[in-house]
Design a protein that fits this description.
Strand content: 15-25%
CATH architecture: 3-Layer(aba) Sandwich
Radius of gyration: 16 Å
CATH class: Alpha Beta
Order of helices and strands: HHHEHEHEEHEHHHEE
Structural class: alpha/beta
Largest sheet: 7 strands, mixed
Number of strands: 7
Number of domains: 1
C-alpha cells in the first residue's frame, strides 16, 4: 500500500514546478514518451478517453491533439495539479480518486495513466477500478518508470534515482523529500512481466509491455474482455 495522504500533499507542494522539473530530470524525454503514448491511443480510434492521475494535463493534451474528435476527461485527486492542467489549456477535468471513481461502468473506450499508477494506494485496487469504467473491448494504457533490464545501465540509473534526481528536483521545487519518495517508489513498482501478471490477475486480457529508452520507462497495454 502506498501512503495516499503523503502523495496528495507531495504533489500539492510541487504542482507549480512539476512540468519544468520533469523536463529537466528527463532531459525532455518525457515529452517523447507522452507523444508515443498519444499515438498509441490514436490507433484505437477512441470516442471517450479517461486520463487518470492527469496531473498537469500533459498526456491529456497530447491525446486530445492526436485524437481531436475524442472526448478526453482528466481525473486527479490533487486539485493544485489540476489547476496547472487548466493553466496549460486543458479544462475538462474532474477531482476524483482513482480508487473510487464517480463514473459509470463501461463508459470509456480507453483509460490512460502516466506516471500515476505507481503512486496509487493499491495497484490492484486501482486496476480493477479502471477495468470497471472501461467498456468491453476497451483498452488500458499505462506509462510509468521502470528499472532497465540491462545490468550495466541499471546500477548507474539507480544511483541517479537515489542521489542525483532528488537533489536536482529539490533545487527546482524546494521539496527534495517529495522526490526522494517518488524516486524510491520506482524501485518498488512492478515492471515488465510482473506488471503484465498483475494486469491479468485484475481481469485484463493480453497485456503487453514495451520498454522505452532502454527500459527507463515502460508502456503497457491491455484489454477488457
Amino acid at each position: 500500500m502506498q501512503d495516499a495522504r503523503y502523495v496528495k500533499e507531495a504533489f500539492a507542494g510541487i504542482a507549480r514546478r512539476y512540468v519544468l522539473t520533469n523536463h529537466v530530470l528527463s532531459l525532455g524525454t518525457d515529452v517523447l514518451w507522452r507523444r508515443k503514448t498519444a499515438r498509441l491511443v490514436e490507433s484505437f480510434a477512441p470516442g471517450h478517453v479517461l486520463d487518470l492521475a492527469t496531473g498537469s494535463g500533459d498526456l491529456a493534451l497530447a491525446i486530445q491533439g492526436a485524437c481531436p474528435s475524442a472526448r478526453v476527461l482528466g481525473a486527479d485527486f490533487s486539485v493544485p495539479m489540476m489547476r496547472q492542467a487548466q493553466r496549460q489549456g486543458f479544462q475538462n477535468v474532474v477531482a476524483a480518486d482513482a480508487m473510487a471513481l464517480p463514473l459509470a461502468d463501461a463508459s470509456f473506450d480507453v483509460v490512460t495513466v502516466a506516471f500515476g499508477l505507481r503512486n496509487m494506494a493499491s495497484w490492484p485496487g486501482a486496476l480493477k477500478e479502471m477495468l470497471r469504467v472501461l467498456r468491453p473491448g476497451g483498452r488500458l494504457v499505462v506509462l510509468d518508470f521502470s528499472l532497465p533490464s540491462w545490468l550495466l545501465l541499471r546500477g548507474p540509473y539507480v544511483f541517479y534515482l537515489k542521489h542525483i534526481m532528488p537533489r536536482v528536483a529539490g533545487v527546482l521545487t524546494g521539496k527534495r523529500e517529495a522526490y526522494e519518495y517518488l524516486c524510491g517508489s520506482i524501485e518498488r513498482f512492478p515492471s515488465g512481466a510482473r506488471m503484465e501478471a498483475l494486469m491479468r490477475d485484475c481481469g485484463f486480457a493480453e497485456p503487453v509491455s514495451r520498454p522505452l529508452s532502454f527500459g527507463i520507462a515502460t508502456l503497457y497495454t491491455a484489454g477488457k474482455p
